[in-house]
Design a protein that fits this description.
Structural class: alpha/beta
Strand order of the largest sheet: 2-7-1-8-9
CATH topology of the largest domain: Rossmann fold
Distance between the termini: 46 Å
Largest sheet: 5 strands, parallel
Helix content: 25-40%
Number of domains: 3
Shape: globular
Radius of gyration: 28 Å
CATH class of the largest domain: Alpha Beta
CATH architecture of the largest domain: 3-Layer(aba) Sandwich
Length: 492
C-alpha cells in the first residue's frame, strides 16, 4: 500500500500502541514524527516515541509545519515534506492527529488517504480502572476522562464524513490488530499504486502479452496495473516522441528482442537507465548474440515458462527497490529552476545553432557555491560544466558532498585536447548529479549519464515538467540536431 494513514481517537484508545505494532509488522508502513511544545513524559524517556523535535514556542512550529494544531495546552506540527518523502519511496506514512480540522485538511491534500478513528469500548469506572493500571501519574485521571469525552464528541460531529474506518479497542491485542489487518488488505487491493508496465515486442506479441500478465500474477502483485504494448521500435536514426512519451510514463519496461534488430538495445537501455526506469531485456537462447551486445543487461529464455519466470523475478526485485529521490524535494526543484535561469544567459561563439546550457553547484548545506552557463569571455564557446569546475579550482570544497545540476547531459566527445564534460565531472569527485535532458543526438544519447553512473555517481533526471522548459528553450537546436546528416556529421 502507498497511502497516507491518519489515526485519530479518544484518549486511551490505543493510538500509540497501534503505531508501534504496525511499524514492527509491516515493512511498508513508516510512522511520521510530529513536532510539539509538549515536554517529554516520564514513561516516554526510556523509548523512541512519535514526538520528534520539542519547541518552546508555537511560532517555530507554525512557521515550519504545513499542518499544525493546538490540543489541550500544547501545539503540534507536521511537515508535509516528511509525508512526501515516505510516499515517494513507495511506502505508507502513518501519523497520529488529535484535531479533526487538521485531519480534514490533510484528507483534502491527500484524497486517497486512509483515516481511522480508534475507540475504547470502556467508559466510566471501567475506563478509570484501565487508566490507573497504565500508571501514568503525570497526567491526572480526571483530565484523561475529560479528553475522552471531548474526543468522542468531535468524532460524533465529524466522523460520518471524515473517517473511513472505526477500530474498537476491546483490550485484546490480537483482535485489535486484526481489525487493522483487514483494513490494510482491503485498501491495498482497491487503491494501491497503479503500476504502468510496457511490453515492447514484435514477434508472437499476443502470446507474450498473456505471459506477462501471468508473470505479474505469479509475482503476487496485489496492486492494479496497466499493461501496454508497444510495437514501434527505435532505429539508429530516430527516437520518435510517441515512444519517448510512452517510456517516460512507464514504471517497468519489458524488452522482448525475439526477431528484432538488437542493435537498438543500446538506445533503449541507455534511455531507460538515464531516466531510472526499471526494465528487463529478453532474448531467445537459440538466437546467438553478437559480440557488440554481450556487455548489455540481457536475460535469455528457452521457452515461454522461462520468459514469464524471468519477468516475475525481475519484477519482484523492482517492487522491493526503494525509489531514488532526495528528502528535501522542494529545494531540489528550486535549484533545477536556477540552472534553467543560468542557461538563459548562454552566449555563442558563432552564428551556428548551439544549445542553451546552465549549471549550478550546491554544497551539503544547500548553498550555491558556483554557477555557469555555456559561452564565456571572448566568445570561446566553453561548456557550462567546464566553466563551473574551472571557477572552483582555487576553492577548498569537498566536492563529494556537493550536488551538480546541469540542464543538458554532459558531453562524451570533444576535439583533442579537450576533455569531455562527463569525464571532467567524474574526475572532480562529485557524487551526485541532476541532468535536465538527454542529448538529442541519438548516437550519443544517454552515454554521458551511463558513464557517470558506471563511475559510481548517483544520477537523476529533472522531472518532465521542468525538462519541458529546457526543451522549449532549446527547441531550435533540438530540431537542428534531428535534421543533421548522421553519416557525415560528428556528434558534437
Amino acid at each position: 500500500m502507498n497511502k497516507l494513514i491518519i489515526v485519530a481517537g479518544a484518549s486511551g484508545a490505543g493510538k500509540t500502541f497501534l503505531l508501534e505494532n504496525l511499524y514492527q509488522r509491516y515493512s511498508d508502513i513508516e510512522p511520521i514524527k510530529k513536532m510539539s511544545t509538549r515536554k517529554e513524559r516520564d514513561y516516554e524517556k526510556s523509548k523512541d516515541t512519535f514526538i520528534d523535535l520539542i519547541y518552546d514556542v508555537k511560532r517555530e512550529i507554525i512557521d515550519r509545519c504545513e499542518y499544525h494544531y493546538k490540543y489541550e495546552n500544547y501545539f503540534y506540527g507536521l511537515e508535509k515534506s516528511e509525508i512526501e518523502y515516505v510516499l515517494d519511496r513507495g511506502k505508507s506514512p502513518i501519523v497520529i492527529i488529535r484535531d479533526s480540522r487538521t485531519v480534514e485538511k490533510m484528507k483534502k491534500d491527500y484524497p486517497k488517504s486512509v483515516t481511522i478513528f480508534l475507540q475504547n469500548i470502556l467508559s466510566g469506572k471501567d475506563l478509570k480502572e484501565q487508566l490507573f493500571k497504565k500508571g501514568r501519574e503525570d497526567i491526572k485521571i480526571e483530565e484523561r476522562m475529560d479528553r475522552f469525552q471531548k474526543d468522542f464528541k468531535k468524532y460524533c460531529a465529524y466522523g460520518v464524513d471524515l473517517y473511513d474506518y472505526v477500530i474498537l479497542n476491546e483490550l485484546d491485542e490480537s483482535t485489535f490488530l486484526s481489525q487493522f489487518e483487514k483494513i490494510y488488505k482491503k485498501e491495498a487491493k482497491k487503491g494501491g499504486p497503479s503500476k504502468t508496465i510496457t511490453l515492447i515486442s514484435g514477434k508472437n506479441y499476443e502470446e507474450k502479452f498473456r505471459e506477462v500478465a501471468r508473470a505479474l500474477e505469479l509475482a503476487d502483485y496485489n496492486y492494479y496495473y496497466s499493461l501496454y504494448k508497444l510495437t514501434e521500435f527505435l532505429t539508429c536514426a530516430t527516437l520518435s516522441q510517441s515512444v519517448e512519451d510512452r517510456l517516460m510514463n512507464t514504471d517497468f519496461v519489458i524488452l522482448d528482442m525475439d526477431g528484432n534488430d538488437r542493435g537498438i538495445l543500446y538506445y533503449y537501455q541507455g534511455f531507460l537507465k538515464a531516466h531510472n526506469i526499471d526494465f528487463i531485456t529478453l532474448i531467445p537462447e537459440e538466437q546467438p548474440s553478437k559480440n557488440y551486445i554481450t556487455t548489455l543487461d540481457i536475460d535469455y529464455y528457452t521457452c515461454l515458462n522461462d520468459f514469464s519466470a524471468s519477468i516475475k523475478n525481475k519484477f519482484h526485485e523492482y517492487l522491493k527497490k526503494p525509489k531514488s529521490i532526495f528528502r528535501d524535494q522542494p529545494k531540489i526543484i528550486h535549484f533545477m529552476e536556477e540552472a534553467i535561469i543560468q542557461a538563459e544567459k548562454s552566449t555563442f561563439e558563432d552564428d551556428k545553432n548551439r544549445p542553451y546550457v546552465g549549471a549550478i553547484l550546491i554544497d551539503e548545506n544547500y548553498n550555491i557555491v558556483a554557477r555557469a552557463n555555456r559561452g564565456g569571455d571572448n566568445g570561446n564557446g566553453q561548456h557550462a560544466e567546464y566553466r563551473l569546475l574551472d571557477s572552483i579550482k582555487e576553492k577548498c570544497l569537498n566536492l563529494s558532498k556537493c550536488i551538480l545540476f546541469v540542464t543538458l547531459e554532459p558531453c562524451t566527445t570533444r576535439n583533442h585536447p579537450k576533455t569531455p564534460c562527463a569525464q571532467r565531472v567524474i574526475d572532480s569527485g562529485i557524487k551526485t548529479v541532476y541532468v535536465g535532458m538527454l542529448d538529442p543526438d541519438i548516437r550519443i544519447r544517454g552515454i554521458g549519464v551511463t558513464k557517470m553512473k558506471e563511475a559510481g555517481i548517483k544520477v537523476d533526471m529533472f522531472p518532465p515538467e521542468i525538462e519541458n522548459k529546457i526543451r522549449e528553450l532549446n527547441k531550435n537546436w533540438i530540431q537542428f540536431i534531428k535534421e543533421k546528416d548522421y553519416k557525415t556529421d560528428n556528434p558534437k
